[in-house]
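User: Show me sequence and structure for the first protein, then do the same for the second.

Assistant: Starting with the first protein.
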Amino acid sequence: MLKGIDPLLNARVLGALRAMGHGDDLIIADANFPAESISKQTVLGYPLHIDASATDVARAVLSLYPLDSFVDDAAARMEVVGRPDEITDVQREVQSEIDNAEGKSWPLVGIERYAFYERAKKAFCVIQTSERRFYGCFAFRKGVIAPEA
């Protein structure tokens, strides 16, 4: 345990978050996501695991992880197949965590399922959660921390 660091963030996750640079993607995936096969194509090469909901994992990650303010898709969600405008409960909850972490309303853009898989393959890493609700899959692009912060 460390002061000021969410206990959900294990050593492997902390190492990956620290190693990531500006513009790298992090995937937070639900329990149904093909994390093992997708992760083999990521920079890290294997999935990370946090046994918690996608909402709790997003909250923990965003307590340390800056979102990229230079792009429009720094926070993205997997769209519901056949209903791309539908926002699920887990997506609403993660949207709230993003807004809280950033201190303002932040767009959570939709990405079609197979396009999301392609983005995930190019990510730095995938964190698979124990989220059982469908469409609990998110992509966060890392931003920067200003020198004065």
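Switching to the second protein now.
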Amino acid sequence: MSAPTPAPAPEEVYSIPASYRKMENSHILFWLVKDIAWCMIWRPLGMLMVVPTLGIALVIAWRTRAYKSELAHNLAIVFWITANSYWMTSEFFGFDTVQVLPHVTGKHLALVPFLIGLGILLYYYLVQKPRESRAGEVPTL
């Protein structure tokens, strides 16, 4: 007769309070309005929408700071919106095609925050998450 198989450990649940969910939903609305304004070349509206879009992204990142996975993804979103907003601004004000370095235009500078966001996610998936997985393993005898 074999020993009973232990029950799997319960999976950790991450729930979002309703007030946070409403904020996230309004964030999506502001982001869409910003990008529509960019597409339609409505400069004042596009520039105005940067403030609530980026502001809410920062608040969301701050509120999720206790969860490493959520924080990493939300910080990546902050840098994505920053890059996206800079790119929009460079087109609105005409410095997107200005050469700032050899083979680098004003628009290309948006790569800096894009790459910072990517770096945060790479660090999370290549370093932090494996570390968390190892810490959660139960050694066998």
